[in-house]
Amino acid sequence: MEDVEVIVAHSQRATLRVGDVFLKVDGDLEHAEVEVQAMCLAPVPTPTVLWREAPALAIAAVPGRALGKLGEPSSASPAAWRAAGAAIRTLHDAPLPPWSGPDPDEVAADLDRECGWLLDHAVLPADVIHRNREIAAAALRPWPLSFVHGDLQISHVFVDHDEVVGIIDWSEASCGDAMADLATLTLGQEDRLEDLLSGYGDDADRDVIRAWWSLRSLTAARWLIEHGFDPDAPGCEFDVLRARAREAR
Predict the structure, then answer these.
(1) Is 156 inside any structural domain?
(2) Alpha-carbon torsion 210, 216, 219, 221, what sign?
(3) Is the overall model pTM greater than 0.85, yes or no?
(4) Distance CA 85, CA 164 (A)
(5) Residue 227 vs residues 14, 78, 121: alpha-carbon distances, Å
(6) Which residue range or ranges hold the Aminoglycoside phosphotransferase domain (predicted)?
(7) Which of 147, 168, 171 is nearest to 35 (CA)?
(8) Which of 15, 32, 193, 217 is the most exposed place for a label (fewest CB within 10 A)?
(9) How many domains does the chain contain in total?
(10) In degrees rounded to 5, what are phi and psi of residue 45?
């Protein structure tokens, strides 16, 4: 009998692994719909969908190992990061999916709301929040739309022999800002940005990527806290915000 491994579990979603099968149970049925459609459309390696019966989605495990883990230095080679950059560029250059994502005004409103919560609850020094809010403003410009993954965490990209063999967790895919994907992947791995961009292409806007490091860390913090995760763990979102604030002084 195979053991059941709980990968992640909170009030919105649970992901279980049994052998080579992942079972995702989500209270929002649209997430599974988006995930299945996005994996069908994305021109990059994605997991195989085994079956779907609301609210559950079963997908096959992908080979290889994750590019890294937030809060820990990535042990993947520069060649693996370049391969990740090339794969992401292929995604961003693909035809847009037939559904929209948040626009800059929506993102700005969300950012202001989350900064207000962070200030009210004093989870970080006010000057760190204010400095990062200023940095994040550079991301809030009219962006050219790309096919984006939307939650391209380092643990969602799998590589084997310096090749990308799978990208998982597509429930946030949409039309959006390509720089946000690049920022999410390098969050806490800032020293690997140039390796990534050597595969992606030199037209990436590094200033906007850095702005998205601040923006994503600010907007994710409350959700992480309320769902039992720790953004103050070493190398995670609060460390990113502190580092960005120091650099801005």
Answers:
(1) yes
(2) negative
(3) yes
(4) 10
(5) 12, 34, 16
(6) 13-211
(7) 171
(8) 15
(9) 1
(10) -65, 130
Q: Is residue 89 part of a domain?
A: yes
Q: Indicate whether 171 belongs to any domain.
A: yes
Banded model confidence at residue 1, pLDDT cuts 50, 70, 90:
low
Other C-beta atoms closer than 10 Å to the C-beta of 135 total 22
In which domain, by residue range, is 163 found? 63-248
Kindly report the three-state secondary structure assignment for every residue of 186-246: HCCCHHHHHHHHHHHCCCCCHHHHHHHHHHHHHHHHHHHHHCCCCCCCCCCHHHHHHHHHH
Amino acid in position 1: M
Phi, psi of 154 (to 5 degrees): -60, -30
CB-CB neighbours of 190 under 10 Å = 15
* Bridge partners, residue 83, by sequence: none
Residue 149's CATH number: 3.90.1200.10
Type of residue numbered 183: A
pLDDT in the model for residue 210: 97
Q: Decide if 20 is inside a domain.
A: no
pLDDT tens string 223-238: 999 999 999 999 999 9
Angle made by CA atoms 173, 177, 182, in degrees to the nearest 5 = 85
